[in-house]
């Protein structure tokens, strides 16, 4: 990773830039995000005590160029907590510089410090670059389908 990049925990002053990164991430995945009008709910999840959602950002040249978010989940089958990574995104133009690996390292460090048994996540089937990156990290891939049911 470039020496000019800093991976750190997200701070309240990062919220607007984080929302822009979320928009770019959703666009990259061919979908819309539902944060319009929900910035307050995201801020509450990120910055309450204790936080419901944890976030790390990458700062380079005075701007945020990537982020990762995760939350604690409980596995029935393993009878223990794991860290669920909801998002990992690096802006186009910044990929291939070790930023994704640095974000994953921050999540692994956090998971170890908090005694989570593992980190789990998903990525779209079509995102072969992400799958290749995760395999390169040593992650094990399991095939499942993800479903969404509105309420």
UniProtKB/TrEMBL annotation:
The lineage of its organism: Bacteria, Pseudomonadati, Pseudomonadota, Gammaproteobacteria, Lysobacterales. Keywords: Acyltransferase, Transferase. InterPro entries: Acyl_CoA_acyltransferase, Diverse_Substrate_AcTransf, GNAT_dom. It is an enzyme of class 2 (transferase). It holds the Pfam family Acetyltransf_1. This is GNAT family N-acetyltransferase. Residues 5-151 form the N-acetyltransferase domain. The keyword Acyltransferase applies. Its EC number is 2.3.-.-. One of its GO terms (molecular function) is acyltransferase activity. Gene3D superfamilies: 3.40.630.30.
């Amino acid at each position: 990773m470039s020496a000019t990049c800093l991976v750190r925990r997200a701070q309240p002053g990062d919220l607007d830039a984080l929302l822009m990164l979320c928009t770019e991430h959703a666009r990259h995945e061919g979908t819309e995000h539902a944060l319009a009008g929900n910035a307050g709910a995201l801020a509450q999840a990120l910055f309450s005590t204790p936080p419901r959602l944890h976030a790390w950002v990458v700062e380079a040249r005075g701007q945020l160029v990537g982020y990762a978010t995760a939350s604690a989940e409980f596995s029935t089958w393993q009878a223990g907590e794991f860290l669920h990574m909801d998002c990992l995104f690096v802006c186009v133009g910044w990929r291939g510089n070790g930023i994704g690996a640095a974000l994953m390292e921050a999540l692994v460090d956090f998971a170890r410090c908090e005694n989570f048994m593992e980190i789990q996540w998903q990525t779209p089937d079509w995102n072969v670059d992400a799958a290749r990156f995760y395999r390169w990290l040593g992650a094990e891939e399991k095939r499942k389908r993800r479903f969404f049911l509105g309420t």
